[in-house]
Amino acid sequence: IAPLPPPGASEAEVAAAADAALSLWRRNGVVVFEKLLTPHATEALLSAVRAAEADDGATDYTLVTRNAKRGTRSHKALPVSAAREALGEVAQRIGPFLSAALGGSGALALMESGFMVTRPGAEAQAFHRDVAPGVVSASSLAASLQVALVDTCAEQGVLEVSPGSHRFDPAAPETTSFDRRVAAGGSATAGGAA
Known about the structure:
Blueprint: H1 11-28, H2 39-54, E1 73-77, H3 84-102, E2 114-118, E3 160-161, E4 182-183
Helix pairs in contact: 1-3
């Protein structure tokens, strides 16, 4: 779990928090931030997700999502405008870490904004990459940010990662097996992110 700089943190505190998160990311390929979003931003994002889930016109990826047994999982695009407050908080709180991790000195680019809702009876997803190898190359990096909008427990399934897989050969097939997986936390707290 990486520390977050407190509100109103000095430049030195922000830099120290970014360095601590960067060290974890370089070693493991994953960083967990507890309480990344304020309760207000978490609730606003949850409301936007509920509205988009009910919107038949929203771009729907459910049919191409792994292990999408009918009615147990939905995966749709979320308009950036609906996530503006949450994205602003993310940029403010972990922007320095993301810039250092991705090696950029300019503005970060958002490639996709979406959500997944998993209901009782959903099957676990097969182990996979979140960013397709064709999207990134040896000269570019990408980060996937997942924010829990509701509290969950380990029995509901948690994000699993293979430590070091972020250094894995992008030419390797997605079905490559990894020797070791670890849960990126036994539970997720609403507003927390990995």
